């Protein structure tokens, strides 16, 4: 049988190569993501190991996030330096102040990548005790000097002597650039801007208690672990002491963990691509088995067992999977290089160096591709054994009588309903994203199983106008697509999945925008909103509140601070408000208690949370904060309001339990009768010293949120394009195989007068109908997923379900056009059929 498998592969190499292409694309994305992840890990491991080679021990506050590249100013007081220096075996100690600050030009425009962190701190005072490397000029020595990273300087064309503005927690200050720095071998740290000041200025701006971290160098002959333990005993449990090796590992893990969301997202989309590809593989082998009816029947007639026939089909699938996976792993290296270039484009600069291809990557890529291909071929292989030996004696090959249609439909209904139940449990019952994703996959499989049921009526309906406009060509295309609804449905299923996910993304994005817009219209009593221009931990300077409150015509200002905490092991996002003005700037329904009581400390929770937990005003909940640890917090109020958190505190409480809590946004309400335009001009003057504070009215706030949603939509849609490309490969493959199957039929059409142009048109319109079926089912899936998602997020403000009809129509038309593009090669092949040879075929 091995020789039979080899000969079959050689005889069908063109059609099987198209199947292998879908395996290559899916495996390449998986392998590329793994290569990129391994490269990032190895790169930063080497970078920080080298950067901290001269640092023996680091001391940080136990309340910090244990990262040498942290941007929080958790605080290690200056007097700790003396205690560290006095420890036996310490040769030198140096403070390292850390914080966040935004770099601006003299016109107030932000320098560097606004999506990346803005790191600030103090210049090193001891040579060889910092990862910061001076590349040009000198370190800052006075309060009006600053050094910045080479990456930002190169991007913004800065030179030594240029003047820039810096915004930390206060008005913008102007400084002269006296030098450029790097971070180890990097020009900057993953695209972040870096601004370093002299130690006194850094302490004043970021941490009045002193350095955020201390680094020490051991005397000759002193073991690092021994020195670490000595320092730990000398300074107490309020500080964490790390060796240089631990420091480098923690710093590298912090960076790679921060980039982990990117690699996770890429793996998810790689999985989607493989999922789509599996339908193409199954469809291709199903068609090949149907076309080899006489061949397989002949094998049975001459003595081949059912097991041998199954083994021959699975052997072909295994060969396709192995070849496609090997090529996919190789292509994945190129994909990783492309992804690294994309990161560079977005400002996430990585060190130069070779890509890291671990053996595990090749193993995973091969395993994924081979397993997916083999599993996809099991169904066709089992159908192959149903070919009766008598079929070998037929003059014309006919496929075995299809069985299991009823079983397939029942199974499809069960899988579809089960998938909807599992997805609902994940979204609506708190099962989580993994459960919801598994349910979504089940829904897609169920829809694919049931697609054959609706294929004939849907295609027949869509084909009516085509037949009327195109005449016999359109009618033949319609009849061909309806002739084998199972094959048509299988071909359309791949496109159904890709377009369904794109549709879901569009609906979800539109629902977010519509819900946010409705929330602003219905709940905002404030005319203006003030937010930071910087993404990340840099908030609005505290002085902005006083500046805005002093403007004539301002009736109320509600400032919001942010905090993270945990309750019962769950991480939660909370916010602080001004209880006196909260209800004046936002519509609030006090279900129980009074928001004003937050001034006494405690928390207010949304009614949905209180109902789920059985809480009432006066109950006490245990919450764990990053700075204060576990705190028993009384519930002061139960409320309803359109805010993006279910937990509200007084701003003073947030600052007590979360050190360095950023001021996130301000709501500004004007007094009755005040002219909005005049008030805006006055507010802009008041915000002049604070260029990172952005003033927006309600229309501008809606537009800003729309831009953020559009960016997310564009990124997700771009990644999903790969699955649609694979689906189009499936249409090309299926039509090509269909042309081969219908050579005699095509020859008859040519013999009775059909022109090549008419044959090409017939095949193209058949592709349009297949693509239209996939698009129709995809729209149905996308709408269903979008509705379930909005129901799940109703308590979080996504209360409006909106379908972007115009965008979906464009998507449907694009799918039809893509079908035409996919049919170009099969249509040309169909039109070039040799009439005489086709008529001679039996």
Question: What layout of secondary structure does this protein have?
Answer:
Blueprint: H1 2-11, H2 13-51, E1 57-61, E2 76-77, H3 79-85, E3 90-96, E4 98-100, E5 102-104, E6 118-122, E7 132-137, E8 145-149, H4 150-156, E9 163-167, E10 173-183, E11 193-197, H5 199-206, E12 210-211, E13 213-218, H6 224-235, E14 239-243, H7 244-258, H8 260-291, H9 293-301, H10 306-345, H11 359-384, H12 405-428, H13 433-470, H14 472-483, H15 485-523, E15 528-532, H16 543-549, E16 554-567, E17 570-577, H17 582-585, E18 589-593, E19 603-606, H18 607-613, E20 620-625, E21 629-640, E22 647-650, H19 651-657, E23 663-670, H20 676-686, E24 693-697, H21 698-741, H22 743-751, H23 756-792, H24 805-822, H25 824-831, H26 835-840
Parallel strand pairs: 6-11, 8-10, 17-22, 19-21
Antiparallel strand pairs: 1-13, 1-14, 2-12, 3-13, 4-6, 5-9, 7-10, 8-11, 9-10, 15-23, 15-24, 16-17, 16-23, 18-21, 19-22, 20-21
Note down, in words, how this protein is organized.
This protein is α+β, with helices and mostly antiparallel strands and 842 residues long. The chain has 26 helices and 24 strands. The strands form four sheets. Strands 15, 16, 17, 18, 19, 20, 21, 22, 23 and 24 form a ten-stranded mixed sheet that branches. β9 and β10 form a beta hairpin. α13 (433-470) runs antiparallel to α14 (472-483). The longest helix has 44 residues, at 698-741. The chain is globular. The model is unreliable at 64-74 and 395-403 (pLDDT under 50).
């Amino acid at each position: 049988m091995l020789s039979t498998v080899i000969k079959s592969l050689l005889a069908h190499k063109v059609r099987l190569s198209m199947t292998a292409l879908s395996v290559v694309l899916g495996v390449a994305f998986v392998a590329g993501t793994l290569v990129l992840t391994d490269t990032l890990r190895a790169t930063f491991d080497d970078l920080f190991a080298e950067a901290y080679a001269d640092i023996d021990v680091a001391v940080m506050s136990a309340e910090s996030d244990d990262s040498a590249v942290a941007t929080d100013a958790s605080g290690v007081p200056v007097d700790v330096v003396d205690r560290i220096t006095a420890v036996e075996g310490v040769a030198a100690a140096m403070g390292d102040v850390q914080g966040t600050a935004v770099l601006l030009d003299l016109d107030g425009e932000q320098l560097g990548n606004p999506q990346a962190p803005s790191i600030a701190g103090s210049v090193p005072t001891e040579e060889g005790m910092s990862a910061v490397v001076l590349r040009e000029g000198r370190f800052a020595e006075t309060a009006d000097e600053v050094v910045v990273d080479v990456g930002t300087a190169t991007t913004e064309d800065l030179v030594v002597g240029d003047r820039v503005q810096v915004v930390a927690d206060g008005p913008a200050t102007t400084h002269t650039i006296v030098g450029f720095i790097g971070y180890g071998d990097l020009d900057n740290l993953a695209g972040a801007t870096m601004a370093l000041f002299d130690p006194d200025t850094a302490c004043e701006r970021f941490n009045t208690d002193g350095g955020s971290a201390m680094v020490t160098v051991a005397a000759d002959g002193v073991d690092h672990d021994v020195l670490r333990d000595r320092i730990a005993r000398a300074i107490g449990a309020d500080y964490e002491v790390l060796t240089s090796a631990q420091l480098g590992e923690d710093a590298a893990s912090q960076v790679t963990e921060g980039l982990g969301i990117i690699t996770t997202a890429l793996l998810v989309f790689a999985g989607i691509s493989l999922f789509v590809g599996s339908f193409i593989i199954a469809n291709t082998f199903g068609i090949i088995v149907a076309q080899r009816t006489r061949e397989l029947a002949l094998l049975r007639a001459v003595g081949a067992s059912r097991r041998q026939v199954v083994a021959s089909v699975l052997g072909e699938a295994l060969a396709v999977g192995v070849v496609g996976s090997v090529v996919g792993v190789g292509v994945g290296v190129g994909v990783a290089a492309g992804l690294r270039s994309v990161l560079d484009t977005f400002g996430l600069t990585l060190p130069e160096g070779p890509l890291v291809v671990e053996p595990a990557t090749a193993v995973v890529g091969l395993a994924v591709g081979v397993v997916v291909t083999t599993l996809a071929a099991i169904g066709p292989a089992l159908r192959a054994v149903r070919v009766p030996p008598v079929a070998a004696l037929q003059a014309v090959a006919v496929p075995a009588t299809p069985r299991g249609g009823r079983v397939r439909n029942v199974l499809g209904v069960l899988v579809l309903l089960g998938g909807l139940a599992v997805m609902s449990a994940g979204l609506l019952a708190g099962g989580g994203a993994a459960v919801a994703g598994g349910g979504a996959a089940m829904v897609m499989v169920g829809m694919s199983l049931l697609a054959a049921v609706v294929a004939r009526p849907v295609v027949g309906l869509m084909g009516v106008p085509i037949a009327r406009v195109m005449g016999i060509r359109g009618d033949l295309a319609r009849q061909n697509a309806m002739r084998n609804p199972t094959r048509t449905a299988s071909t359309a299923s791949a496109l159904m999945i890709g377009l369904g996910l794109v549709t879901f993304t569009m609906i979800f994005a539109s629902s977010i925008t519509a819900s946010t817009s409705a929330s602003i219209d219905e709940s905002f009593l404030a005319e203006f909103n003030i937010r930071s221009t910087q993404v990340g931990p840099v908030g609005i300077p505290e002085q902005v509140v006083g500046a805005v409150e002093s403007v004539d015509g301002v009736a109320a200002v509600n400032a919001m601070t942010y905090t993270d905490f945990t309750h019962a092991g769950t991480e939660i996002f909370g916010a602080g408000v001004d209880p006196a003005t909260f209800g004046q700037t936002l519509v609030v329904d006090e279900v129980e208690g009074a928001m004003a009581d937050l001034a006494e400390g405690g928390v207010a929770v949304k009614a949905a949370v209180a109902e789920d937990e059985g809480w009432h005003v006066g109950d006490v909940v245990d919450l764990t904060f990053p700075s204060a640890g576990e705190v028993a917090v009384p519930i002061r109020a139960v409320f309803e309001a359109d805010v993006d958190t279910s937990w509200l505190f007084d701003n003073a409480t947030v600052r007590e339990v979360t050190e360095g809590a950023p001021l996130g946004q301000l709501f500004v309400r004007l007094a009755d009768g005040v002219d909005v335009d005049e008030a805006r001009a006055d507010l802009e003057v008041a915000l002049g010293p604070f260029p990172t504070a952005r003033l927006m009215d309600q229309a501008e706030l809606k537009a800003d949120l729309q831009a953020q949603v559009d960016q997310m939509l564009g990124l997700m849609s771009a990644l999903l394009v790969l699955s649609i490309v694979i689906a189009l490969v499936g249409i090309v493959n299926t039509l090509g195989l269909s042309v081969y199957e219908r050579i005699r039929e095509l020859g008859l059409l040519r013999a009775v007068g059909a022109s090549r142009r008419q044959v090409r048109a017939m095949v193209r319109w058949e592709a349009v109908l297949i693509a239209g079926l996939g698009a129709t089912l995809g729209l149905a899936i996308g709408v269903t997923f979008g509705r379930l998602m909005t129901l799940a997020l109703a308590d979080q403000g996504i209360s409006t379900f909106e379908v972007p009809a115009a965008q979906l129509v464009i998507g449907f038309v694009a799918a039809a056009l893509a079908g035409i593009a996919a049919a170009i090669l099969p249509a040309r092949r169909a039109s070039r059929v040799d009439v005489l040879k086709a008529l001679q075929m039996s």
